[in-house]
């Protein structure tokens, strides 16, 4: 089949299914895939759209945790199958950062934190880039999910209530939020997941307001101060927009560190002739460049998330035509009530 034939076949199936089918695509997907999505968004927007949708078939062009989040939201409150199915066209597309935190490891850390600091109220906050069982761990202990778009609001809410926070899995998002909120370096500590006791003494745990898990996005965490210096030298006067999964000392050099949605909004609001350096995933940077010919847009340094790039038009067509069970995403029903509590606390904020 040629690309045009594949695209036409996808269009025909979409027309035939009407409102019963919802195709969601993350901003980091390839433009050829994005062209066939009913909604394109960041992880927060797509979670909201999945939750509000009445479609019986939701096809998630993105990575595993996103499709899992959609499945958590379309099931009944006790995990019952209500007949609404979530599919991921490229089921091997995961998120390496999500895989850096397991529920078992978090449970063990949680028990040690509680033993070291029994008089404080600790709450887990997990980035939506996490597995369903990590979300269930979070929900079980009264915590909330967050995204790069609302993380600041979620952390501020719990910190203002006097809680202490175990944040997983992204150490850099956590550090960026705390820097923006004005928390000093010594108010938070890093739980180094490969070390016994996270490398923290009971005294350090007691003195910390926040403990961050030592996970990171291998894509965004690779941005360096040298990248910023080189890009600024090549584009003097350009405005640097960067995703907060970048290390905090690097993000601090940007004119704005913001979620995917905030980066897009800043570009859309730009006056003609503006010059931008963008520190995020290359599929999005390329689309922004194509969509805004009146601006000069350069990547801070081109970085591709291979997992996000796994979804192809052929995968999408196969999913829509055959509905293979192997591409269906089904969260263990036993995890759903707690995982859902974790996600719904975020959606309610
Ligand atoms: P957003 O929450 O900005 O969509 O980011 C998701 C992601 O995977 C970023 O790497
Ligand atoms: Fe995960 Fe990073 Fe890829 Fe986002 S860009 S899906 S955080 S590996």
Fold topology:
Blueprint: H1 3-17, E1 21-26, H2 31-34, E2 39-41, H3 43-52, E3 57-61, H4 64-74, E4 85-87, H5 103-116, E5 122-127, H6 132-140, E6 144-146, H7 151-160, E7 164-168, H8 171-181, E8 188-191, H9 202-207, E9 210-213, H10 225-234, E10 239-242, H11 248-251, E11 256-257, H12 260-268, E12 275-279, H13 282-291, E13 296-299, H14 313-322, H15 336-348
Parallel strand pairs: 1-2, 1-3, 3-4, 5-6, 5-7, 7-9, 8-9, 10-11, 10-12, 12-13
Bound molecules: 1,3-dihydroxyacetonephosphate and iron/sulfur cluster.
Give a brief description.
This protein is α/β, with parallel strands linked by helices. It is built from 15 helices and 13 strands. It has a 5-stranded parallel β-sheet, with helices on both faces. A 4-stranded parallel β-sheet has the order 2-1-3-4, sandwiched between helices. A 4-stranded parallel β-sheet has the order 11-10-12-13, sandwiched between helices.
């Amino acid at each position: 089949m040629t690309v045009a034939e594949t695209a036409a076949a996808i269009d025909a199936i979409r027309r035939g299914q009407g409102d019963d089918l919802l195709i969601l695509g993350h901003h980091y997907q390839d433009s050829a895939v994005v062209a066939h999505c009913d909604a394109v968004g960041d992880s927060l927007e797509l979670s909201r759209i999945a939750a509000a949708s009445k479609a019986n078939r939701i096809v998630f062009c993105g990575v595993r945790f996103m499709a899992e989040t959609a499945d958590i939201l379309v099931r009944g409150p006790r995990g019952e199958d209500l007949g609404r199915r979530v599919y991921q066209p490229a089921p091997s597309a995961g998120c390496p950062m999500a895989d850096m935190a397991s529920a078992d490891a978090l449970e063990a850390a949680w028990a040690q934190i509680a033993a070291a600091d029994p008089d404080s109220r600790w709450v887990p906050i997990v980035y939506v880039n996490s597995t369903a069982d990590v979300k269930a761990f979070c929900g079980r202990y009264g915590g909330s999910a967050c995204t790069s778009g609302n993380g600041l609001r979620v952390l501020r809410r719990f910190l203002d209530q006097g809680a202490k926070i175990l944040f997983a899995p992204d150490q850099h998002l956590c550090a960026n939020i705390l820097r923006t909120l004005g928390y000093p370096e010594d108010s938070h500590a890093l739980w180094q997941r490969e070390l016994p006791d996270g490398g923290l003494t009971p005294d350090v745990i007691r003195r910390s307001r926040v403990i961050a898990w030592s996970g990171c996005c291998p894509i965004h965490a690779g941005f360096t101060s040298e990248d910023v210096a080189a890009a600024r030298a090549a584009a003097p006067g350009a405005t640097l927009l960067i995703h907060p999964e970048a290390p905090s000392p690097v993000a601090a050099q940007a004119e704005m560190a913001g979620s995917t949605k905030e980066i897009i909004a800043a570009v859309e609001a730009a006056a003609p002739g503006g010059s931008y350096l963008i520190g995020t995933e290359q599929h999005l940077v390329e689309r922004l460049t194509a969509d805004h010919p009146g601006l000069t847009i350069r990547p801070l340094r081109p970085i591709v998330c291979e997992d996000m790039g796994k979804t192809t038009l052929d995968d999408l067509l196969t999913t829509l035509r055959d509905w293979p069970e192997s591409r269906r995403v089904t969260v263990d029903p036993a995890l759903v009530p707690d995982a859902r509590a974790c996600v719904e606390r975020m959606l309610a904020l």
